[in-house]
Design goal:
3 helices; signal; DUF2846 domain-containing protein; 10 strands; four-stranded antiparallel beta sheet; globular
Length: 194
């Protein structure tokens, strides 16, 4: 049993270790690029069956998405704080203006079959974001947290979770204090912008 548990945990630990290896303790984007850091979390009754995604688009034609599965992803804050289900993501982007367009979330209510008549109920939500952010070459910008609430009433929550997310960057990504002090903090909750 111990061996099977250890083998199952290895891919998740490797993902954290690979980001630390990639960054080598520094937030130095590749030449001509910049970094954007954002955490994506979700709230649902059945976290093991919940996924969330946000999409972004740039004026330069670049587009992409950030994804999390609450079954596998965790954001760890400073030592001594409780972790949060979600993912802290480092986007490597060319300089320019970008916009988070919309968020998607999906979950299954009562996946164990306790729903009336022995079934479960799948739900999904789609919520607009419409917040801009800018990336500059050679710079790292922190955008805060995007939380997709799928529990009672679908809701999108933007917040500044700098203490937790910087704690994750220091503890898990092994980014040094000097580099964290150089991060430009521009939370989407405060309007983001450029």
């Amino acid at each position: 049993m111990w061996l099977r548990t250890t083998l199952l945990a290895l891919p998740f630990l490797t993902g954290c270790a690979s980001m630390a290896s990639k960054l080598d303790g520094r937030l130095d984007p590749p030449a001509g690029q910049g970094y954007a850091v954002v955490s994506l979390t979700a709230l649902a009754f059945e976290p093991d069956a919940t996924r969330a995604q946000v999409t972004y688009r740039g004026a330069n034609g670049v587009q992409g998405s950030v994804y999390t599965s609450l079954n596998t992803d965790t954001v760890f804050g400073p030592e001594g704080t409780s972790p949060v289900e979600g993912r802290l993501t480092l986007l490597t982007l060319p300089p320019g203006r970008y916009r988070f367009v919309e968020a998607f979330g999906s979950t299954v209510d009562d996946p164990d079959g306790g729903f009336p008549f022995g079934g479960s109920s799948a739900r999904s939500v789609r919520l607009p974001i419409g917040r801009d952010f800018c990336v500059a070459a050679g710079e790292t910008v922190y955008l805060g947290e995007i939380r997709v609430d799928i529990s009672y009433r679908p809701e999108l929550i933007l917040k500044n979770s700098q203490a937790r997310d910087f704690g994750h960057m220091a503890r898990v990504w092994k980014v040094g204090a000097d580099d964290l002090n150089r991060v430009r903090v521009s939370p989407l909750a405060d309007g983001g912008g450029c």
